[in-house]
Amino acid sequence: MTLALRDVGKEYGRLRVLDGIDLTVAPGEFVCIVGASGSGKSTLLSLIAGLAPATRGTVTLDGEPVTGPGPERGLVFQSGALFPFLTVAENVAFGLRLLPLPRADRAARVEWYLREVGLLPLAGALPKELSGGQRQRVAIARALACEPSVLLLDEPFGALDVQTKEDMQLFLRQVWLDTGTTVLMVTHDVEEAVLLAQRVIVLGCDPGRVAAEVPVTLPAERPLEIKRTAGFHALRSTVEDLVRANMSTR
Ligand SMILES: Nc1ncnc2c1ncn2[C@@H]1O[C@H](COP(=O)(O)OP(=O)(O)OP(=O)(O)O)[C@@H](O)[C@H]1O
């Protein structure tokens, strides 16, 4: 599905958070949105998720206006937001309750996606028995289980320690390669954006707008060592400079 935003604006009362956002994400793309704190990254994602309405402009999926949340858009937040009293498998199944699937297909999907995220052995565990990284894997499995056309992630690894974060970054890239799902991810971490995305969108502040777009001209194969290459350093510096140049002056 093609995601298209045309002249999108968002205001909260007199606060203009986003203005004139034009953005197209093609099927199968991996796009990251970066920007200084307060540039409106999370707000932008919530408009695409259908959690809040735009004040102006249109958000469409294959030409159909987004009017609310839908199973074709999977959402993952920083906190994972798992149900504490449901097991790992039940948490993944929960996302499927709105889909008209026979019970056997439902169970098969839960198993498939738990295997994909490497958590099948922990299907019966409760969230409190998992590490932070494992919890985020469950949240990703829950979103993927609906087989969304677009996976929307808001700082999904922001609360993890460095090593777990790196593992999860490699994991997400592999999921993207395996499933072909379109991925749109918000992060304040420029290094993460350059490591993962094919294209990085830089939001500027006051109001939030697309300040720049940087194609990530790195090979598709991206082991962590790529972060030590000159090409990676150059791209990271370019994006960091753009974020800084477009910070709020208030
Ligand atoms: N529900 C709301 N009501 C009023 N103002 C809001 C609401 N949500 C966000 N804002 C304001 O919109 C602006 C952008 O917030 P948003 O969370 O989208 O930015 P962000 O780029 O994701 O920031 P961060 O990187 O710090 O998470 C901020 O000034 C924030 O206070």
Automatic annotation (TrEMBL):
Gene3D superfamilies membership: P-loop containing nucleotide triphosphate hydrolases
Source species, domain of life: Bacteria
InterPro entries linked to this entry: AAA+_ATPase, ABC_transporter-like_ATP-bd, ABC_transporter-like_CS, ABC_transporter_ATP-bind, P-loop_NTPase
Alphabetic keyword roster: ATP-binding, Nucleotide-binding, Transport
PROSITE patterns: ABC_TRANSPORTER_1, ABC_TRANSPORTER_2
Residue ranges of every copy of the ABC transporter domain listed in the record: 3-230
Pfam family, one: ABC_tran
GO molecular function, one term: ATP hydrolysis activity
Protein name in the entry: NitT/TauT family transport system ATP-binding protein
